Fold this sequence. Notes:
By secondary structure, the chain is an all-alpha fold. The chain is 76% helix and 0% strand. The protein is globular.
Amino acid sequence: QRSLLAGITLGDDRAQPADMTDAFRAAGLSHLLAVSGQNVAFALVIAAPVLSRLRFGPRLAVTLAVLVAFALLTRAEPSVLRATAMASVAAVGAAIGRPASTLRALALGVAAIVLIDPLLATSLGFRLSVAGAAGIVVGAGPLAGLLPGPRWLVTPLAVTLAAQAAVAPLLVAVFGPVPVASVPANLLAVPAAGPIMVWGLTAGLAAGVLGGPVATVIHLPTRLLLGWVDGVARAAAGWPLGAPGARHLAVLGALAAAA
């Protein structure tokens, strides 16, 4: 659980055991083993009580400082760089009175990052992050409008399907067939990753300072949430739902385009 918490909050995956890594990969949840772009949003959520009390100019400066600090804290992981650039574009656009759409923020952020460091274009983590974000931005809304059912289920399902469809070609090319179990596994596990991140960087910091029995009590919610995520991954790894390969994805893509 310690290694999983370090991976989700800070991107430190050095101590993660091989059996856990294999289970998360088989369940399509390997993006939870290390820090991802969504963690940038949670970092801003943590800073929100301070940011909301600042005037507009100082708020922009502190927002950018939080983004840079979190990127440095997580060793500038490619997915964090993508999300940081995207959030910075959105923050600056709002500050100068020219708010950018989500798609434009993604395009400008990615372009700026690649101009600064062209070698990021060869990073699989960066390409997966960009593809997943683009899939959500472009496809989640239309999918949510097409899928039947209550909004509390349809919205996260549309986000999951859009992201999975966008990253599937890259995953198939590098790792082979993509497990179908990744869709229900993400629906079950990802909602717990947000509280783990927020609690880990706030109450977790207090627990680290105080130590002892107090830290044990503070981290009870952390243990429950980490146990849930780990349990979902290990269970989903054994679900007999199949794993479509390149040919299956090509046929599905052709059918979707025709529809």
